[in-house]
Amino acid sequence: MARIGKFLLCVLAIIICLEVLVRVWGYSEMYLYDPIYMPYAKSKEIPYVLKPDLANVRAHGNIYINTDELGLRSLNPGEKYPPKSPNEYRIAFIGDSVTFGVGVATKDTYAEVVQANLNRLQDRYRVKVFNFAESSYSVKEMVATLKYRVPEVSPDLVVMGIIINDFYLDRTPGVDKWGYNTFGGPSKIVNKFPTIKLILRNLHLSYVIRDVLARIMEKKQPEVQLMQGKMPEWIDESYRYIIDFKKIAAADGYQYLVLSIPTLGQDGSQFRHIINNFKRDKIPYFDVSPLSMDFTESQFRASRYDFHPSASVHRQISDKLSGYIMKKYLEIGSVEKAK
Predict the structure, then answer these.
(1) Which of 67, 129, 200, 324 is in Cβ range 3.0-4.6 Å of 115 for a Cys bridge?
(2) Alpha helices in 26-138 (DSSP H)
(3) Which residues of the chain are in CATH 3.40.50.1110 domains?
(4) At 140, is the pLDDT very low, low, confident or very high (cuts 50, 70, 90)?
């Protein structure tokens, strides 16, 4: 028994030392967040949304955020919105973690900077943006958001911001009773025991172990490779949600735009086939995906261990998008021919 006791004390000491090292290392910081999510009551097509009226809570990417009365990321906690005024131009953004702005302050997200830019550059309209993006949404959840949530704000323009992995429909997790996301892979077992998982969330070492197991056990997400001029089948199958985006937006009377966003390590060529489809299907798009080539890897990353775009990348996206919206949708300046 004495030997077993010494062995257990040794194991405990090793775990404590590793935990301290991981905390000093800082690797787990991007994974730590408060229980900020809840199920969406109006439709099962949307697995989770942000809780409304949150104030200074921790979100993915080691950032602190507020949410408004609609459960959208906002500069002010609990912000409420009066009825739309005659000279107000509303833009609804839908997307994933990039559009949400993981890793950057709310004021630095490209959606917020677009609002600031458009209100600074012209005074014909008062522009207001609403950021409906959520981390890990695929194009499927984005379209459901357009269908069920976006009508609450009566937008004039809807912008769907996408990266290529948004066409991978199995990427979106669920939500547990605490308000945390429940991913698959190595997390499947502990998902069945939410209380144990809640304890593990406070153990920084658990995130390192999870990621190591994920690389060993988890099926690799499909790679984007052009083969004989065609995109992989998993993208072609989920492209139908882009068509649904167009149909729903048009039926509701919204102007609409698909925005292809830069990704770390990609030069924009991954969108080539999809853009050809946009042209074929007469879907308005604006491609800023090649912007990734303007930054070094360290400049692009939101932080050392976070591959999401930095505030500088968000600024570049917003500057280009603001000019495009001015010309194409607000009809201010020279009118650019639609793509």
Answers:
(1) 129
(2) 97-100, 110-121
(3) 41-168+227-328
(4) very high
